[in-house]
Structures are given as structure tokens and as C-alpha cells.
Amino acid sequence: MQQDPRTDEALMLAYRDGDGAAFEALYGRWRGPLYRYFLRQCGHAGEADELFQDVFMRMIGAAANYEPTARFSTWLFRIAHNRLVDHWRKMGREPVDPLPSDEDGDDCGNNPPAAEDSAPDRQVERRELGEALMAALNELPDLQREAFLLAEEGGLTLEQIASISGVGRETIKSRLRYATGKLRNKLEPWR
Predict the structure, then answer these.
(1) What percentage of the chain carries pLDDT values higher than 90?
(2) Where among 90, 109, 139 does a domain terminate?
(3) Which of 13, 16, 108, 133 is spaced 20 to 30 Å from 63 by Cα?
(4) Does residue 105 sit in the same domain as residue 185?
């Protein structure tokens, strides 16, 4: 099946105007990154499924009023971020930002991509690395993990992540720096 060449914004405008195939193209592009974002934030497939479906339902509900004032990915992940914050609050949990106070200024993704070498020892090594990465991601503080996943899974820029999160660019830059440093330290044995 050939991928639709239109931009995400053009697809969303087409969907807003009644083009069902445009929605299918958007869903195909964003289902993996959005689902992995939720799965890695929650750690439970059931919760990730619920949040994922809810975001697409909200996207459908908001389609009639959609205007491309930002990149589609920023708009979509803003909805996802807000839904995740609502979920955390419902669970009685607030995300913690452990930054020092002066810093203010279709696989589910559980396995790394298969290597060309499929020898059993390489498969075991890749599986173990994937598990180590997931464990390291789960150990990150919520806000650092979210910034990292928005950058990696969503392909968003610092400015887009800052807009979604409602904080400054430098705060996001710090969160990403801390997250990357912690992940490097945890994954050092795999280098």
C-alpha cells in the first residue's frame, strides 16, 4: 500500500472536510509513536490502549474545529499530554520534576529492531538490551521520560515539546539532557 504523500496538516484538513482516507493515513502514521508514548509512560498495555483510543476519539471530536496553527504532531501530542496528565491525576499521582530549582529558565516498541544477523546469541543480546532500555526508561522521572519520548517517539522539536508541556524551551532542554545522561549511565554496560 502506497503512503499518502500529503503532509499531516493537509491530511487533517482533508479529514475535517470529510475525507475518510485522510484519517486512515494519519492513523497509520501516528498509531505506533502515540501508542509507544503511552505504553512507555504507563508501563501497562491496558492503560496505554485506553489512553491511545481516547486521544484518537478526541482528535475525531476536534476535527471540525481543526486549524493548522502548529504542526499536526504538536497538536496531537498536546492532546496526548493533556490526557496523560488527566490520567495521572485520576490515579492520584502528580508527575515529579526532579530538576534543580536553578534549571527553570506494529510491535509495541518493546523490542529493538531486528538486526541483519539473526544468530541466537545476537537475538538474546538484542532482547536483553531492549529490556535494559525499557527498565532505564521506567526509572526516569515522569517529566524527563515524557520529554524524551516526545522527542524520540513523536519526533518533536524542543519548541514543540515546550509548547505541549507548558514550560520553557530551556526547561525541556534540561529535562532531555538529564534523561539522556541517566539513560547513558544505565546502558553503559551495553556499549
Answers:
(1) 45
(2) 90
(3) 108
(4) yes
